[in-house]
Amino acid sequence: MNKISEIGSTFFAYLKRPDLYPELRRKIWKNIFNRSSGLRGKEEAEKWCASLAISEKDFIENILKTPFVPFEKLFPDEFASALQAQAKAPVKMGGAGSLSVIYYINEFANAKKSIETGVAYGWSSFAALASLVSRNGTLYSSDMPYILQNQSEDFVGCVIPEKYRNNWDLFRFADKESLPKIFAKSDSFDVVHYDSDKTYDGRLWAYNLLWSKLKKGGVFMSDDIGDNAAFKDYCEKNNRQPYIIEFDGKYAGVIIKD
């Protein structure tokens, strides 16, 4: 599909979904007036991340003060089944992030209510729920539909084990529509995991809002923070102490709320 055809197909796909019209308006505005937002400050962000980065193991053992066992070894049967579920999915969505970090920050916070933005196959959801279910907690998830892939909605969260699904509450809108709906159910959270709108402006909007809903002693995490300078600038402006974790050539940022 060439670029013009893709734009046309995307536009008409949105027209069939009145519930997504607010996001369509935002996408039109971003593509016309704010196309550089996704990569703003990327070079300085990557240097900053590289200068501070530690491994998953170092973060979990030295900061969270717990022995490190990789997530896939903690839940080998569930993990193997999740890989099979992803392999069977006929649509392409985002891959897994740092599952071990996601699991252990929920353990560290003794989380009963967690929120994430961005689901796709549901790897991060799986990792969070593996911790939450032990306390009968709830994961609230916001995920924008994959508008050009007709079957995608059937496979969002497909790797999440069936036994965890009663503890999962999924909202299928853009964050600006999903988050108010989630906050109507719960106004505070033990863990925040951000992995949706990757633009500079989109991140800063969400960071400020989600931080205000995070409990004292809770944990804030954002993926792919080397893509632009949003996380760096947010931390510096608000005097936050971040931990930068490197895995698979990417960076995640974590902040523990004092």
Automatic annotation (TrEMBL):
Q: Name one Pfam family in it.
A: Methyltransf_24
**Any idea which UniProt keywords this protein has?**
Methyltransferase, Transferase
Q: One MF term in GO for this entry?
A: methyltransferase activity
Any keyword Transferase? yes
Q: InterPro entries annotated for this entry?
A: SAM-dependent_MTases_sf (IPR029063)
Q: Which Gene3D superfamilies match?
A: Vaccinia Virus protein VP39
- Alphabetical GO biological process terms: methylation
Under which name does UniProt file this protein? Putative O-methyltransferase YrrM
